[in-house]
Here is the input.
Amino acid sequence: MRVGLICDRWEHHSKHSGYEQLCRHLDADELPPGPFYKFLHRFPKNFGHAFPDIWEPWRIPYHSARELDVFMRSIWNGRRIYHFLYGENTVRILPYIKRRCCRIVCTFHQPEEMLEGAEQFHRTVSKLDGIVVLAGHQIPFYARYAEREKIFFVPYGVDTGNFSPGTEDRNPRRCLFVGNWLRCFETMAGIARRLRDARPHVGIDVVTLEKNFRHFENMPNVRCMAGISEDALVRLYRRSALLVMPLLGATANNALLEAMACGLPIVTNDTGGVRDYVDDSCSSILPERDAPAFTEEILRLLDDADKRASMSIAARKRALEYDWGKIALMMQQVYDKIPGKP
Here is the structure.
């Protein structure tokens, strides 16, 4: 049975980055927004019935335009599995109105603590035919609302061809921080201040949104960047000594995987799905919100070139386990196991 992929694309994802890369590796049809979706989006956003939801009040037909568009496609496309790659953002009503010959699968990206109070979302989850999670700790949450046999852990992937180690030497005086979502900027700023005092010659490159630059004001050891090209980001992954990544929460983390694929040793904290992707061979995993512990570990690793070299080799080796080609094979196996597949 054919699979149709419904995928949002995010501006902060580069050409070879993001979960949408899965579309390039699956034997499936990516379904762009159709005429029915475009028609529904002519309505003002405040039009239609609204109910509380995860991010903002969910309004029909505006927010459900993609679901209704898929429903209309299903009338003439016949038997299909429809896989929404960002389920939190897209699916609310389709599982209730789907045709009997169709199956609905969603991948969910956000930590469960963000979804606890979303009752309509919980009801929708219970109607799905397949639930794909990106970290093992998500399974018990979704098992509260759906049968366990419908829930599948398929890791996030990475383009190990584009994100790969370089030939240039790493700079032992440069650390790197990347991202915005669920990053702990308070801890990162604390790390930067302590490094400034302990090793003024060690710099930190911060790649994030401009709104986050304020956390690093008056810190001459921090260089903030926003909107850089993918090539520039890859060069930073290849030339830095360490990726320093304090997190507030996580399922998968795109920057961790990209850094690993480039052979960059990682210093992060133990939260969510971090241990599903990194281990002690390629990373130092510390307590949350502990800037002194982060700083101490960074200084230890900066003084130990041999340890960083072994972590770099282990990071690349581990990243190869998450190549998108391998992840696509795992996802195909999920499609074959969808309960009640027509």
User: Anything to note?
Assistant: The two ends are 9 Å apart (CA to CA).
